């Protein structure tokens, strides 16, 4: 056995779990209690249960205290497993001795209790199930059945969740041959109590009858199982609310590696893998550190929640960070530092997987290449040279090193290997990835400034093949963060909010992937504007560099857009960009949020909005670049964030701005585009008489024609016509969208100061989370409002019924039959409780954003009923809302209202402005709502 050098983690682990329960003392105490009842189990059972519960509760409290004291996650899991070993053994012993004694047992009256699954590995989390196998020789006798039943009922009465199976040795072998779950459970089996010879017989027969000759089948099944688990969990190991047990880079991935190792190499401990040369000492220490950290997180999760909780959700992350001793640093909060550590560990788990697979493959090649999961690519041909280089070869359709010295001989090869893999569309041989990882120290200042290395990097960054995959491989190997040290600072960095689904580095890489797909025309349906613009830009490579660097300065005290521009001015010349290209990249990074915020938060029908935006952008080329970057950035935030609504807003902003920047000659004027939209609707509704269409067209103002897509215009026309024909003053419609996870509610009703609050209040009462709103008024005094809410039901019919209930409540509220304030208050109380996020409330008044309106911009922490309270308070302040723009970024809401006083003037009085600010700030705190409720 190889002895590993001690690190704090390995030393602590090697000390073994500290005993928290004396099994013999517990058994004696139970026996003494039974004897007090003259050995009668029936009368003593309740007292036995009480003693065992008392001992377990006290031991679990000691284990939690020890976890806080020494931080040993693996030790904690081992202590909990050892505690239950002792409890089960003590309980089983007294049951056999006093409840069902067998004075003269037959050969069939033998039983062994065996731990399987995670418990079989000798580890348990506080809320884990306890998986037991009750093993008997060849048939189940009445005595065996009675003992098993007595043990199980006592464990259940303790409140434990016990997964159990009752089988003979032959049953186990027969089922293990056909059922991979049973096979894995038996592989992890560990004797607890009873007839140890039975348990040993199972192990020997399992080895000889099941394991022998079936390694390929087992490994293929386990890896397929792992891939399916990753698919269910979201594939990426960089999801910001990870599953500690089942997620990619979590404990189950480490379990899978060890299952395969035990099965294939027939080892009992991880250290034996070092003896066999499968892992180096450093690799094994890393394995143990990852395991220890993940177990610490999981045990804290269970203790904190008091249940079997595996998802590290936002509301738990901060408390876990505090429990683990993380503190805040400039630019990074305690919880963000903890989560960065978590994702670095998840990345290490991925590295270990690749190293292990490489060793396994090499061993199989020496024997008989039958593992189709690992070796399927080996059937496609033999090694061959790559034209233009002697340092790399194509080894069974994967790039591999020609010799172990390729990187030390020429460090530029650490970049070239990725360039060649992209150029020739090659996967990476595990041996190459292992050598890359072990050569990272060669990436120094000299290599970072090397002209050839930077040329190769820029080519692969802006490749027309698959730059996303190559950059992700570079990142996982550790090369990207070392070659671009500024990128290294944001590797595994999370942003503690509900808006961003991925870590910062994963987001940047995904944005490159979206951009590449747009350029290749693969996303034209979702990104028609960007797809049409990208072939017309003059310099595509600066766009890729800007996308790669746009969030490079996250996690620092300074504004990340401004600091990111400074970093770009340093990096771009190194990458080979000219001074003018560098300045364009820096500008794009500095304003990369500007187009999105303008489109979602400003009135695009107000000429001042367009002139302000055009003044910042200044040129048609920059407008194109910014539009493409904005679309890719939003789409890479997470599933469902990009939708047709946002696409239409950006299209309108682009179309309104482009003629101003091009001198009005390059595209249709605003009037021409309005006329074209009206003509398109006429063509789509040929059955409408000309006079009816003429009357309908003039009911809508120009912003409506520019901001609403044709499909919605057709639906709106039908809705309004039906209302007119039936003389109804309230009409509504519902559109469900499973792809975006959003349901849209459209309301057509007489315009009224309380209309918005009625809509928002009804949504709040129904528990509908509002993510966006589109507000229009017509020339004849009606409002046409569309509200997007988060979808609740998977089935369209269920979702439509929910939407119909909301719309009916809006109708009743407008008619005075529904008392919304009371119901909103009840809903808020029901959803009350502390929030894991802290966002400073900000209320701004802008008189320079519009020529005719005061613009109220309010931002802060979202909560149930907020929009209802805001619109109600604005009405109470005698302000008229002419345009509303609702944007939700996870837990943060940014709402913009274009308002005037009751006679149509801006709010210019300073005292009144301050009063408005105070009142709207109080809305976020709930003060205004409480005052209204009390009144």
UniProtKB/TrEMBL annotation:
Keyword line: Hydrolase, Magnesium, Multifunctional enzyme, Nucleotidyltransferase, Repeat, Transferase
GO BP terms: regulation of nitrogen utilization
SMART domains: HDc
GO MF entries: [protein-PII] uridylyltransferase activity; phosphoric diester hydrolase activity
PROSITE patterns for this protein: ACT, HD
EC code(s) of this entry: 2.7.7.59, 3.1.4.-
InterPro entries, A to Z: ACT-like_dom_sf (IPR045865), ACT_dom (IPR002912), HD/PDEase_dom (IPR003607), HD_domain (IPR006674), NT_sf (IPR043519), PII_UdlTrfase/GS_AdlTrfase (IPR013546), Polymerase_NTP_transf_dom (IPR002934), UTase/UR (IPR010043)
Domain HD stretches: 504-626
SUPFAM superfamilies named in the record: ACT-like, Nucleotidyltransferase, Nucleotidyltransferase substrate binding subunit/domain, Poly A polymerase C-terminal region-like
Cofactor: Mg(2+)
Annotated control of activity: Uridylyltransferase (UTase) activity is inhibited by glutamine, while glutamine activates uridylyl-removing (UR) activity.
TM region(s), chain numbering: none
Catalytic activity: [protein-PII]-uridylyl-L-tyrosine + H2O = [protein-PII]-L-tyrosine + UMP + H(+); [protein-PII]-L-tyrosine + UTP = [protein-PII]-uridylyl-L-tyrosine + diphosphate
UniProt domain ACT: residue ranges: 744-826, 855-932
Residues covered by region (Uridylyltransferase): 1-385
Domain of life: Bacteria
Function according to Swiss-Prot or TrEMBL: Modifies, by uridylylation and deuridylylation, the PII regulatory proteins (GlnB and homologs), in response to the nitrogen status of the cell that GlnD senses through the glutamine level. Under low glutamine levels, catalyzes the conversion of the PII proteins and UTP to PII-UMP and PPi, while under higher glutamine levels, GlnD hydrolyzes PII-UMP to PII and UMP (deuridylylation). Thus, controls uridylylation state and activity of the PII proteins, and plays an important role in the regulation of nitrogen metabolism.
Free-text comment on this protein's domains from its UniProt entry: Has four distinct domains: an N-terminal nucleotidyltransferase (NT) domain responsible for UTase activity, a central HD domain that encodes UR activity, and two C-terminal ACT domains that seem to have a role in glutamine sensing.
Family: Belongs to the GlnD family.
Alphabetized HAMAP family for the sequence: PII_uridylyl_transf (MF_00277)
Protein name, as recorded: Bifunctional uridylyltransferase/uridylyl-removing enzyme
Source organism of the structure: Amorphus orientalis
